[in-house]
Amino acid sequence: MSTLVIVPAYNEEESIVSTIEELKEKAPDFDYVVINDGSRDATSRLCHSHGYHVIDQPVNLGLTGGFQTGMKYAWRHGYDNVIQFDADGQHRPEHLVDLVEFQRSTGSDIVIGSRFVTKSKPHSLRMAGSNLISCIIRLTCGVTIKDPTSGMRLYNRRMIEQFATRTDLAPEPDTLAFLIKKKNATVGECQVEMRERMAGESYLTLSKSVSYMANACVSILFAMWFKN
């Protein structure tokens, strides 16, 4: 089964080279593509100078637009699976094979690289928000997801088609809930380890984290009522 690793990147000049070099070293059997989402720094130049596989978007479309670009590419090139992989160095490429093996053994439509399958969540405001999202997904979909905000996810061919042919799906918890409830997607979680961001700064400040969690909860309920 062929798997494409999608690496959305926006202004990641400090980490993109180390991320892709580690990906190539530790997961050499996986295809990858960097989606340069209209970066204003040297991200594009570095990717091209190193000969990386990259798609340059002329303007910044955000994570959703960048991910959809990658999904359309995967759909048109016939990939069986896609794995979303962060450009900032938080995700560890040695776990890619774990996600694929988990999918093969369980037949899951979506496999989440989860930090909390065998480990407990730390006590923090962000993890409290994660617990709230998990609770709403469980109440609306009847499925328990321990790490709903993890950005390391595998999607199979059936899910790739959904992202590639629609414009209203984002790589976010509300889409997970929608795919489970409305498209009968099966979801599994595979234990992974993640690092802190290797360079740059996360856009999720404390206030933005709270806003993100609140919006995610509302979006899940909205998806249950209005999306088809």
UniProtKB/TrEMBL annotation:
Coiled coil: none annotated. InterPro entries: Glyco_trans_2-like (IPR001173), Glycosyltransferase_2 (IPR050256), Nucleotide-diphossugar_trans (IPR029044). It comes from the Bacteria. Residues 5-162 form the Glycosyltransferase 2-like domain. Belongs to the glycosyltransferase 2 family. CDD domains: DPM_DPG-synthase_like. This is Glycosyltransferase family 2 protein. It comes from Enorma phocaeensis. Pfam families: Glycos_transf_2 (PF00535).
